[in-house]
């Protein structure tokens, strides 16, 4: 069923790492793009294959020695046997064979100190589904509540899928990979962090609520980033010294996973939840867009010391783009205050300002262009909002 979507990540023509959280569709994408190439596939989720190659990584070299130059080899979940990368390096150098190395965690690769191919393989990310891939046919209330993972999007009962997903993440990515010694503390931290999705991150308060040391919380956040479950949205700082916040925000990669981790899946999303979840949905689309079209502009937020804020700020090759998000059907003039303040700081002619809301009509208030959410997403993917 997942083949019904045409993904925005184009076929990769050179050796590459393909990274993405569990359930984003990496294996399906690989099958669709490399089946015709008769790619040789090693699936490290297969226990027999995992044990065999763990015992003797050189088998990869021996079993691909006969392949002609330019052939494709797929290694799925490469982080499970990091030592294979030494063999991959040797095969690329000697045989000019191309590899797609997929994985849902970079932590074990980095911590093992293994050969990361020194530029011989590019890195690409696969995100959950985006609006363009589903023809902009989105029920925003549903997607805010249950996210955009392919199986969740298609499921008759997305609650059950997401509950199973988070249990699998905790079991396979955390416990089995031994990423933390105290599994109970980490599970408690996860629930607290999910409840604070999209807020300024106060690690001291989280540590107190989770009953662990502050340094432990920092380590737990690193696990979430390394397993691609979340990311930091850093505050953008003006070149000159001004009073503004320095704490980042932490966002999870999918709004449905947020609700599952926070224990909120059985209940309707409250207005307090829906605002950060709406932000999560839109910001993740923007992250996917800038990656898939290979702009890779970093995303920031901006907030002054007195609480005036802009949800998303990008510095593009053509100037700054400021975007504010409101999970409501009315846009009030006061919502523009953060963008106006930022424009004054940077220079009014240097910033293009957009608002995104749940209303039905495109409006303009004081040089801020405000779009209904789905209209904004259509314009985003057409290149009208952010381009090179």
Description:
By secondary structure, the chain is an alpha/beta fold. The chain folds into three domains: 2-125, Rossmann fold (3-Layer(aba) Sandwich); 131-272, Arc Repressor Mutant, subunit A; 287-381, Trna Endonuclease, Chain: A, domain 1. It contains 15 helices and 13 strands. The strands form two sheets. The protein has an eight-stranded mixed beta sheet, sandwiched between helices. Strand 12 and strand 13 (368-372) form a beta hairpin. Helix 9 (183-195) packs across helix 10 and helix 13 (271-292) packs parallel to helix 15 (373-381).
SSE order and pairing:
Layout: E1 16-19, H1 26-34, E2 40-43, H2 47-55, H3 59-64, E3 72-76, H4 84-95, E4 98-103, H5 107-111, E5 122-125, H6 140-146, H7 150-154, H8 158-175, H9 183-195, H10 203-210, H11 214-226, E6 230-235, E7 249-252, H12 255-261, H13 271-292, E8 300-303, E9 309-316, E10 319-325, H14 337-346, E11 351-357, E12 363-365, E13 368-372, H15 373-381
Parallel strand pairs: 1-4, 1-5, 2-3, 3-4, 6-8, 10-11, 11-13
Antiparallel strand pairs: 6-7, 8-9, 9-10, 12-13
Helix pairs in contact: 6-12, 6-13, 8-12, 9-10, 10-11, 13-15
